[in-house]
Amino acid sequence: MKRLRLPRSPKVIVGLAIELFFLVLTVIGPWIAPYDPSYNGFVQNLPPSAKHWLGTTALGEDIFSQLLNGARATIVVAVVAGLVATMIAMVVGISAGYLGGRADDGLSMLSNVFLAIPGLPLLIVLDSYLPQADRSNSLVLGLVIALTGWAWGARVLRAQTMSLRNRDFVEASRIIGESRLRIMAVEIAPNLLPILASSLLFTILYSIGAYVTLAYIGLTSTSVWNWGTMMFWAQANNAPLVNQWYWFVPPGVCIALVGAGLALINFGIDEFINPRLRDAGLTSKMMRRAGLSRRVRLGVTPVLRPTASPRRSRGVLSAPGAPR
Amino acid sequence: MRVIGRRLLLYVVTAWVAISVNFVIPRLMPGNPIQTMIGKLTNQVTPQEIAAIRSAFGVGLSQNWWTQYWHYLDQLAHGNLGVSITLSTPVTTVLGNAIPWTLGLIGVATLVSFVLGTVSGALLGWTRGSFFDNLIPVATFFQAVPYFFLGTVAFLIFSNHLGWFPGQGAYSLTLSPGFDWTYIASVLRYGELPAFTIILSSIAGWMLGMRNMMITTVGEDYVLMAVAKGLPRRRVIWHAARNAVLPSIANLSLAIGLVVSGALLVELVFNYPGVGDLLFHAVANEDYPLIQGIFLVITLCVLAANFLADLVYFALDPRTRTPAAV
Lengths: 324, 326
Prior knowledge:
Distance between the termini of chain A: 30 Å
Helix content of chain A: 55-70%
Largest interface: A-B, 62 and 71 residues
Structural class of chain A: mainly alpha
Order of helices and strands of chain B: HHHHHHHHHHHH
Helix content of chain B: over 70%
Order of helices and strands of chain A: HHHHHHHHHHHHHEE
Strand content of chain B: under 5%
Shape of chain A: elongated
Radius of gyration of chain A: 24 Å
Largest sheet of chain B: none
Oligomer: heterodimer
Distance between the termini of chain B: 11 Å
């Protein structure tokens, strides 16, 4: 079986570990939370202690329980939005790139318009007209966010599709009479997989930011706990002014960690797509072991090549044209 | 010129879409929030104001959409964005007071962030594999932090705790606005921390983009040639960077929208009297005319900035000026 050649750079491993941790938290978070996140019968404004790991809010709620519960809504909305947006991007991007002509003009215009409109203000306008019931619905919020976040992916996919459409294997399928739909879905789409993955991660990253921002300015239902709502209440109760860092710092750090994890994985995918970036994932120790000086040698961009020897599966750097 | 024309067409279409979104959304959304809003307002505002809201949002009107749409465009053409419900002031007046603050803060911060990020990205790309590569994960982390969170933390540490920067607002409240030096100094002083926050949040994007482009460019033959000719290192970096910066500038017009969106929230954290703060006020009070007015104005400003960025790109890249260019 062909082995998937993911670069084994520390960045990707760290990124994957972070995401795995938060995925587990999404599932088990509400179960392992010590208290009901909305129960407000505790002493107010307690600093962190053994009973309340992250203290209590100005309303007497347990902050740690809110943090654990908040993971689910935040990540579910982000993943829904990311998946939907990537689907839209795929349909629009591949059709525009493959069909060309009028269809391309129209679809490109559409995605450029969505790129040019600043996302957050549009999102706020759309969201402020949603009925209260929908503002607690992860699916509806995910769809609205997806609507504002698909255009970038469509643009990238279109460009890549255009470079694929005249390759021999596509020409061949055209000649043997495959339908356009089949060519786009079966011949072209699988070849865009790394870019699709990268686009998915990027959109999830955007969606987390968008969702948390909406919650932070009070545009999602306060009955659903997410990390943005926590910061909304912290800001509303002047937590930063009275040094209640344990109220607003933990949700912010969680958001940043999830985001940084996604970005790190994305680095791995970038290196997978563009071999010239590939050795960037190696530590200096690994580069020295491969016998390559750390200084950049001009004109001979090092490219990571897997070696035949199974023992050093990490690969060795070799410079094209350099004496072996 | 054809290229510029195409871009201009795109922005005109985009502006039209934004204008139409403002018209269509209130009329399409389920549950009719405008009706609810009017119900709440009945005892607070005059019947004339309610009639104005009704005509602006198309509630309980017998006209068809087409007539309403023309009326709406006509109002817009005369610079009428309606009246803010909570402030009882025309939206244009409210926005007119807020926009200079936002333009000053976000405009300067974005420009500084772009220049700094691009220069450091170029150097990072040149010295790849050195100690400075450790900056990349750090930058990534800052990129993933929401702007408003970074703002809150910065405020807590530098302003509240260490007292290096003044507190919230845009100028010392003991001063009265005017064109004297103390007032201007106060404005600059109060703007430092918000601007610093925006720069810190947005710089990573420029830096990473430029670094990756630079790595690709350094592998090109003409850079090798420049080294072989014995040009001083600074000139070689300049050669490579000039070419690597083009995609960054091409992306500038796309990134401005994202940066502005994030930066608006920084105003909220610092109680900065700009459009972001206004937006929060409007959302909290369900002030629909104000929300829509802000959306429209931000969109138009971003489009104008995009067009400027495009003009710079065309001026820099000769390939866009040849007739064969698409």
